[in-house]
C-alpha cells in the first residue's frame, strides 16, 4: 500500500512536469507576443527589445524553460508580466473563492443526483424513472454557459431572488453552485440508479425484508448507505471535471476565482499566470484522481490494490 | 466488449439495428439527429432569409432586437438579422466542426490506443504515459488558450478541439486492444507469419469497430459542446459566420431584454448534444454484450 502510494506520487510528479513542459512549449511556439502587450502599441523597437531582455524572453526555449523549472522547484511560479505581482500571490488570493464554489457545487450535484437516482431506482420502469433518466441525459448535454444564463435569467432577472453576479454573500453563491450541481447531477443520478438496483437485489436486503422490516427502513438503513459507497470515489474525478470548466462559470457570474484570473491572463498573453493556473488545475485533477484511487479500497475491501 | 460484439455488428448489423429501434430514447435521439442534419443540409432552401442580411425592418424604433413575430418567426438579433435563418445556418457550423474535429480526434485516439495496446513494451509505455499526461490537462483551459492565441477560424477551432478530445478514445481502444492481442486467433495469425500491419488492420481493427462507433457518436456531442463554449467566449467561430455559441456571445448585451436570443440557440445546442448522447448511449448498450440486460 505505502509502496503503491509512493509510486503513484512519483508518477504524478512526472505528469505535472510533463504538463508544465507542454504548456510552456505551446506558449513559446504560438504566435502571440507578450512583449507587445506590455509595451503597448506606441512603443519604440528599442523599448520592446529592452522589455524582452528584462523578462528573459530573448533567450532560447531551453534556457527559458530551465529557469522556470528552477523557480518551480523553489516554489516560485514567476511574476505576472502586467500585474507586477508574484503569480503565487495572485493565485493564493483567488483560490479560496474557487474552492468555495467547487465545494458548494459538489454538495449540490450530490444532493440532486443521488435523490434523482434513488427515486428512479425505487420506481424503476415507471414514468417517473423514465422522466428522471431523460432529465439526466439533458443535464449532461447542456454546456455550462447555457445553464448559467438560464438560471440567471429566471432566478436573478425575472424573479429577482438572487443577485445577477458577484461575490461576498451566500446568495451570490447559490446560482453558480446550482449551475455546477445541475450539470454534474446527471452522472450521479445514473450511477446511483444502477447502484441502488444492484443493492436491492442483494441477499442482505432480502434478509432485512424477511425479518419484517418496513420497505422504507430497508431502503434508508440498509440499501442507500451501501449504494452510495461506490459513488463516493467519483467525487475525486469530479474535481478534475470541475477544474476544466471553471473559466466559464466564473466568467458568467463574475466570480473572482482562478478561472477569471486565467481568462484575463489569456486575453493579455500574461504567460506566467497562464502557466500557474494550468499547473494548479492539473494538480487538482491529479489529486482528485489519486483520492478516487485510494478511497475505493477503504470503501470496498474486495477491491485490492495490486 | 468481446468478440461476439464485433461479429454482431459485422455479420448481423440488422439485428443491432432492430434492437436499437426498440429503444424509445434512441429513436427520439435519431429523430433529433435527422432534424439537425436536415436543417444543416437544407438551410439555403428552408431558411426564410439570408443569415447575413441586416433587415431594415428588423429592429424596433429604439434599435433593439425584435421578439418573435409573423415576419421573423424567432425574432431578430442585435443587427436586425433573422434569428431562425442564423440558427439554421449555425447547424452547418456545429455539424462541420462536430464531424471534422471528432473525426480527427477519433483517428488520433484509435491509432495511439491500438499502437500502445499491441506493442506494449516501451512504445506502449511512452504512449500511455503521454495519454495520462493529457488526462491531467485542464482541457477547456488548454482549448481556450490555444484558440485565443491563434486567429480563430473554423479549421483552427476544429483542430484545437481534436487535440484535446482524443484522450478518452485512446484509453478505451488501448484497453480493448491489449485484451484482443492476447487472444488465440491473434497468436495463430502471428504463427502463420502474418505481418504486424496485417494483424493490426485486418484482425484487430475490425473488432474495435463497435467501440469506435460508440465513442465516435458520443464524441460528437462533446465536440459540439466544446465548440459552443469556445464560440460563446468569443474565441471560437467568429461572427459573422453564424454558430450557436457565437449567436449568444454576440447578443449577450441584450440578454435581459431579449432573452429569446439566448433561449433558441441554447435549445439548439442542447438538442444536438442530447441527440448524439442518446444514440451513443443506446449504441453502447446494443453493441456491448457485457452490459446487455443490466437495464
Explain what you see.
The complex is a heterodimer of chains A (306) and B (295). Chain A has 306 residues and is mostly helical. Helix content of chain A is 78%, strand content 0%. Chain A has 13 helices and no strands. Chain B is elongated. Chain B has a single domain, classed as Orthogonal Bundle (MetI-like fold), CATH 1.10.3720. Chain B is mostly helical. The two termini of chain B are 17 Å apart. In chain B, 72% of the residues lie in helices and 0% in strands. Chains A and B meet through helix 1, helix 6, helix 7, helix 11 and helix 12 of A and helix 5, helix 6, helix 10 and helix 12 of B.
How are the SSEs ordered, and which strands pair?
The complex is a heterodimer of chains A (306) and B (295).
Chain A: H1 2-29, H2 34-39, H3 45-54, H4 61-73, H5 87-122, H6 127-140, H7 144-158, H8 170-201, H9 203-210, H10 215-232, H11 234-253, H12 258-267, H13 271-299
Helix pairs in contact in A: 1-13, 5-6, 5-8, 5-13, 6-8, 7-8, 7-11, 8-10, 8-11, 9-10, 11-12, 11-13, 12-13
Chain B: H1 3-11, H2 13-21, H3 24-46, H4 83-119, H5 121-135, H6 139-149, H7 154-165, H8 167-181, H9 184-191, H10 196-232, H11 244-251, H12 260-287
Amino acid at each position: 500500500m505505502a509502496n503503491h502510494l509512493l509510486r503513484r506520487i512519483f508518477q504524478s510528479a512526472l505528469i505535472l512536469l510533463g504538463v508544465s513542459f507542454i504548456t510552456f512549449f505551446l506558449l513559446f511556439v504560438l504566435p502571440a507576443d507578450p512583449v507587445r502587450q506590455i509595451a503597448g502599441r506606441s512603443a519604440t523597437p528599442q523599448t520592446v527589445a529592452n522589455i524582452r531582455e528584462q523578462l528573459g524572453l530573448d533567450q532560447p526555449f531551453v534556457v527559458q524553460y530551465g529557469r522556470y523549472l528552477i523557480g518551480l522547484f523553489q516554489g516560485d511560479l514567476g511574476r505576472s508580466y502586467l500585474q507586477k505581482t508574484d503569480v503565487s500571490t495572485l493565485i493564493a488570493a483567488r483560490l479560496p473563492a474557487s474552492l468555495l464554489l467547487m465545494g458548494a457545487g459538489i454538495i449540490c450535484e450530490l444532493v440532486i443526483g443521488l435523490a434523482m437516482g434513488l427515486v428512479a431506482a425505487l420506481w424503476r420502469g415507471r414514468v417517473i424513472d423514465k422522466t428522471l433518466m431523460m432529465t439526466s441525459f439533458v443535464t449532461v448535454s447542456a454546456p455550462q454557459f447555457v445553464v448559467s444564463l438560464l438560471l440567471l435569467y429566471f432566478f436573478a432577472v425575472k424573479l429577482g431572488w438572487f443577485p445577477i453576479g458577484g461575490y461576498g454573500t451566500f446568495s451570490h453563491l447559490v446560482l453558480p453552485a446550482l449551475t455546477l450541481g445541475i450539470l454534474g447531477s446527471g452522472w450521479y443520478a445514473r450511477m446511483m440508479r444502477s447502484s441502488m438496483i444492484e443493492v436491492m437485489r442483494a441477499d442482505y436486503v432480502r434478509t432485512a425484508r424477511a425479518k419484517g422490516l418496513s420497505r422504507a427502513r430497508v431502503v434508508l438503513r440498509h440499501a442507500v448507505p451501501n449504494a452510495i459507497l461506490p459513488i463516493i470515489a467519483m467525487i475525486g474525478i469530479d474535481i478534475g471535471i470541475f477544474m476544466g470548466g471553471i473559466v466559464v462559470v466564473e466568467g458568467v457570474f463574475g466570480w473572482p476565482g482562478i478561472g477569471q484570473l486565467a481568462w484575463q491572463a489569456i486575453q493579455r498573453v500574461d504567460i506566467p499566470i497562464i502557466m500557474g493556473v494550468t499547473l494548479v488545475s492539473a494538480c487538482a485533477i491529479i489529486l482528485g484522481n489519486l483520492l478516487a484511487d485510494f478511497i475505493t479500497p477503504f470503501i470496498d475491501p474486495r477491491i485490492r490494490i495490486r | 466488449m468481446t468478440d461476439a460484439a464485433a461479429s454482431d455488428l459485422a455479420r448481423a448489423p440488422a439485428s443491432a439495428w432492430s434492437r436499437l429501434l426498440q429503444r424509445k430514447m434512441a429513436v427520439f435521439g435519431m429523430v433529433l439527429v435527422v432534424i439537425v442534419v436536415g436543417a444543416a443540409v437544407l438551410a439555403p432552401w428552408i431558411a426564410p432569409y439570408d443569415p447575413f442580411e441586416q433587415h431594415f425592418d428588423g429592429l424596433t424604433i429604439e434599435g433593439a432586437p425584435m421578439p418573435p413575430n409573423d415576419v421573423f418567426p424567432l425574432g431578430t438579433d442585435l443587427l436586425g438579422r433573422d434569428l431562425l435563418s442564423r440558427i439554421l445556418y449555425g447547424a452547418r457550423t456545429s455539424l462541420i466542426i462536430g464531424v471534422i474535429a471528432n473525426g480527427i480526434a477519433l483517428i488520433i485516439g484509435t491509432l495511439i490506443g491500438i499502437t500502445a495496446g499491441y506493442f506494449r513494451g516501451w512504445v506502449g509505455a511512452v504512449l500511455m504515459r503521454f495519454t495520462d499526461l493529457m488526462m491531467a490537462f485542464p482541457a477547456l483551459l488548454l482549448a481556450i488558450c490555444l484558440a485565443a492565441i491563434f486567429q480563430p477560424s473554423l479549421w483552427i477551432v476544429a483542430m484545437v478541439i481534436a487535440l484535446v478530445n482524443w484522450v478518452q478514445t485512446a484509453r478505451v481502444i488501448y484497453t480493448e486492444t491489449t485484451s484482443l492481442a492476447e487472444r488465440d486467433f491473434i497468436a495463430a495469425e502471428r504463427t502463420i507469419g502474418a505481418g504486424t500491419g496485417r494483424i493490426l488492420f485486418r484482425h484487430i481493427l475490425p473488432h474495435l469497430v463497435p467501440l469506435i462507433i460508440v465513442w465516435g457518436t458520443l464524441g460528437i456531442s462533446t465536440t459540439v459542446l466544446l465548440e459552443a463554449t469556445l464560440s460563446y467566449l468569443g474565441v471560437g467561430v467568429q461572427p459573422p459566420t453564424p454558430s450557436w455559441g457565437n449567436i449568444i456571445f454576440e447578443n449577450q448585451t441584450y440578454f435581459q431584454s431579449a432573452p429569446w436570443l439566448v433561449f433558441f440557440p441554447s435549445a439548439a445546442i442542447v438538442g444536438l448534444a442530447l441527440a448524439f448522447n442518446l444514440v451513443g448511449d443506446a449504441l453502447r448498450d446494443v453493441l456491448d454484450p457485457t452490459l446487455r440486460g443490466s437495464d
